[in-house]
């Protein structure tokens, strides 16, 4: 039996070239590969095998030796800084001048940037309209917008004048004197929980939402009323689109980059997407206490929320119709169950009109309507495209 050495050499050359090409691709794409594969493997191993976040109490608890960082960046280095209010409405939920507290089902805190006046107006005209909720749904909702000061020093005074005029008209802006930037989102989160405990502690629920989110208010109110009437009485609730075992992003070019010096551990505690989530009144009080105890230098607000909740023994509860970072499909069979959808900077009014139109739900009525809508939801949701909104499980709910 004879060997063809020429053929062997050719095969070896092909193998060497293929191996070299694969190694080159790994070197070029290592950062992406490390983030999407290696870091997630480490994170899931830590989350599901070790599952220990003792560092939240051992290394992140504020001690008297900690000092606040009050440099020009306005980033919080330890405990929460008590920034002064520039615009405030202490009587929004009653309780002022000796009055009794109003019975508030839901306190809506919308995180908004100073220049986003059009988004705020669209929310006031649609899902955040307090008068509509009271007249049509029979419950009391309070809407406020959490904002800081404009980051552009030169244009700040002009924007501030516009904010004061806007607030004089609507009376729903809550502003503190910190720079409104991405790295101060945790400061804005602390503002929400501090204000709610100081001026609206009786609210049964608190919702935190971005100003480009859409909330199907009739569906949300129905869901919250059901929780209140349940045996648990809606205690210990933190519900939204849950991220489990998420790893810190180490790529320096990412908006969400977190250096090892800030967070050296391979996995975040479970948290809900910051686009929109709801907590019960007792949880809001516990989160407020945690913000006063934990080092708040973590500038990704939804992660910091997860850290506070973990320290207080609170776990997030997933809901299939709370959106993540993506936009939900436009279809009547989706509107029938929708609670939140993210990424609606320009189409809030048209979506509100379509989602709340009584004619929308004719398709889902009766046995055949349910079968039809289930089939539609399977086609819409059981694809990778909508993985950041509603999962495939939602199609059968």
TrEMBL record:
It is a single-pass type II membrane protein. It catalyses: a neolactoside nLc4Cer(d18:1(4E)) + UDP-N-acetyl-alpha-D-glucosamine = a neolactoside IV(3)-beta-GlcNAc-nLc4Cer(d18:1(4E)) + UDP + H(+); a beta-D-Gal-(1->4)-beta-D-Glc-(1<->1)-Cer(d18:1(4E)) + UDP-N-acetyl-alpha-D-glucosamine = a beta-D-GlcNAc-(1->3)-beta-D-Gal-(1->4)-beta-D-Glc-(1<->1)-Cer(d18:1(4E)) + UDP + H(+). One of its GO terms (cellular component) is Golgi membrane. It comes from the Eukaryota. InterPro entries: Glyco_trans_31. Gene3D superfamilies: 3.90.550.50. The keyword Cell inner membrane does not apply. Pathway: Protein modification; protein glycosylation. Its EC number is 2.4.1.-. GO terms for biological process: protein O-linked glycosylation; sphingolipid biosynthetic process. GO terms for molecular function: lactosylceramide 1,3-N-acetyl-beta-D-glucosaminyltransferase activity. It is found in: Golgi apparatus membrane. Keywords: Glycoprotein, Glycosyltransferase, Golgi apparatus, Membrane, Signal-anchor, Transferase, Transmembrane, Transmembrane helix. PANTHER family: BETA-1,3-N-ACETYLGLUCOSAMINYLTRANSFERASE (PTHR11214), LACTOSYLCERAMIDE 1,3-N-ACETYL-BETA-D-GLUCOSAMINYLTRANSFERASE (PTHR11214:SF21). Belongs to the glycosyltransferase 31 family. This is Hexosyltransferase. It comes from Stegastes partitus (bicolor damselfish).
């Amino acid at each position: 039996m004879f060997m063809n050495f020429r053929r062997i050499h050719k095969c070896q050359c092909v193998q060497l070239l293929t191996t070299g090409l694969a190694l080159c691709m790994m070197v070029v794409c290592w950062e992406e590969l490390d983030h999407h594969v290696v870091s997630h493997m480490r994170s899931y191993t830590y989350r599901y095998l070790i599952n220990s976040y003792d560092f939240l109490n051992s290394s992140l608890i504020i001690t008297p030796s900690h000092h606040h960082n009050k440099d020009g960046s306005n980033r919080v280095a330890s405990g929460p800084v008590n920034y002064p209010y520039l615009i405030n409405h202490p009587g929004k939920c009653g309780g002022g001048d000796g009055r009794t507290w109003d019975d508030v089902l839901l306190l809506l805190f919308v995180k908004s940037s100073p220049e986003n006046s059009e988004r705020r107006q669209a929310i006031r005209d649609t899902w955040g309209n307090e008068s509509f909720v009271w007249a049509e749904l029979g419950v009391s909702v309070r809407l406020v917008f959490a904002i800081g000061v404009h980051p552009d020093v030169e244009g700040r005074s002009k924007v501030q004048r516009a904010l004061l005029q806007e607030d004089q008209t609507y009376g729903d802006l809550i502003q503190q004197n910190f720079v409104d930037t991405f790295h101060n989102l945790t400061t804005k989160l602390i503002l929400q929980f501090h204000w709610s405990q100081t001026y609206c502690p009786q609210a049964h629920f608190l919702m935190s939402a971005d100003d480009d989110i859409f909330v199907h208010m009739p569906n949300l109110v129905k869901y919250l009323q059901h929780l209140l009437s349940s045996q648990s009485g809606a205690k210990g609730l933190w519900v939204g689109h849950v991220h489990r075992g998420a790893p810190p992003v180490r790529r320096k070019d990412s908006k969400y980059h977190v250096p090892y010096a800030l967070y050296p551990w391979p996995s975040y505690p479970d948290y809900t997407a910051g686009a929109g989530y709801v907590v019960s009144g007792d949880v809001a009080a516990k989160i407020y206490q945690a913000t006063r105890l934990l080092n708040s230098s973590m500038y990704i607000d939804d992660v910091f929320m997860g850290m506070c909740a973990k320290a207080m023994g609170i776990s997030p509860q997933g809901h299939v119709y709370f959106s993540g970072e993506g936009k939900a499909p436009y279809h009547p069979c989706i509107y029938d169950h929708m609670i939140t959808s993210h990424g609606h900077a320009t189409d809030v009014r048209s979506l509100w009109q379509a989602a709340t139109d009584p004619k929308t739900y004719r398709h889902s009525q009766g046995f055949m309507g349910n079968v039809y809508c289930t089939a539609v939801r399977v086609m819409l949701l059981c694809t990778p495209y909508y993985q950041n909104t509603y999962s495939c499980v939602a199609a059968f709910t």
